Each structure stands twice: as structure tokens, then as C-alpha cells.
Amino acid sequence: MVAAGAALADEVGLPHLTMGLLAERVGVRTPSLYKHVGGQEDLHRRIAALALGEAADAVGDAVRGRAGRDALAAAARAFRGFVLEHPGRYAATIGMEPSGPDDPLALAGRRLLDAFTAVLRGYGIGEADVDHALRMLRSLCHGFATLQTANGFQWSTDIDESFEWLITFADRGLRAM
């Protein structure tokens, strides 16, 4: 049910995902959905956990065996690719707070942070600066990908070229630390 909801969110956008639309998609009556999810909020929470887990897998696979700029570029490209391919499910992750440390949302989020933390190891970022560096990477990657998803880059410069410029900028900044 959650996978179908996530796919539908990618198609129609998270704000347009309703229990009725999901029921129609999976061929059941809306009340039948409540056997699987507790409602709209629960569905969004489960989609967010799924999305974070999938993003963690994509980034983790991309950085395995890489270090430095190579790892940074692989992580950034994998993250951007995930957001562009799955805009609805990724949107579910924004602002969704885990209910505790064992919440699937927290566990999946930790896996994604661990993948980006592995990238930072190649730069020798001190422990005191890891959280700052993670926030910087998230801001760069999330910001770029969500702006691109929303068609926020409407001028003539090639978007991929701009993204590579962003990777170079982040790499230089991390190396300067």
C-alpha cells in the first residue's frame, strides 16, 4: 500500500495524494485502506520513511569505494537523481519528524546521514564540524534538486553544468576546512 502511495505521490504530487485517489489506484474502497495505514498522516509518514531508505540506498551505493571529490560527486548526483525521479515521495520527507529513535523514519534518516558522513571522512572534517558540513551538503543538494523539480531554473545555462559547478564549489569548501 505504501509503495503504491509513493508511486502515486510521484505522479500527482504529494499535496494531491488522497486516500480516495490511492484507493481508486489500488482498486479498493477507501475504508479498506485503513486496514493498512492509519490515515493520511500515517501514509505520509510511511512514504517519508520509504523515501529516506531509498535515498540512503542510492547514495550509499554511489559512494561505496570512493573518497574525496569522487565520493562527493557520486553522492550529490545520486541524491539529485533520486529527488528528480521521485519528487512526491521525497516531498514527504520535508518537515516530517521521527516519533523516537526507533521510528523507521529516524532509522532511514540515519542511514542517509551515514552515507553523507562517509563522504565527509574523505575530507578529514573534524568531529565538531560534521553536523555543519552535513547541513551544508543537505542544503546544497536538497535546494538544487527541489528547485530543479519545481522548474526553478528557467534561464539558458545548462542545469547539469550548474550542478557540476555546485559540486566543485562544495569540494573546494570542504578541502579548505
Structural features, described:
The protein has 177 residues and is mostly helical. The protein has 9 helices and no strands. It is globular. Helix 1 packs across helix 4 (40-63), helix 4 (40-63) runs parallel beside helix 7 (104-121) and helix 5 runs antiparallel to helix 7. The longest helix has 24 residues, at 40-63.
Write the layout of secondary structure elements.
Elements: H1 2-12, H2 19-26, H3 30-33, H4 40-63, H5 68-85, H6 87-91, H7 104-121, H8 127-149, H9 159-176
Helix pairs in contact: 1-4, 4-5, 4-7, 5-7, 5-8, 5-9, 7-8, 8-9
Distance between the termini: 45 Å
Segments where pLDDT lies below 50 for 5+ residues? none
- Main beta-sheet annotation: none
The helicity comes to: over 70%
Number of discrete helical segments: 9
Number of strands: 0
- The residue-averaged pLDDT reads 96
Percent strand equals: under 5%
Write down the Rg. 18 Å
3D shape: globular
Structural class: mainly alpha
Helix and strand element order? HHHHHHHHH
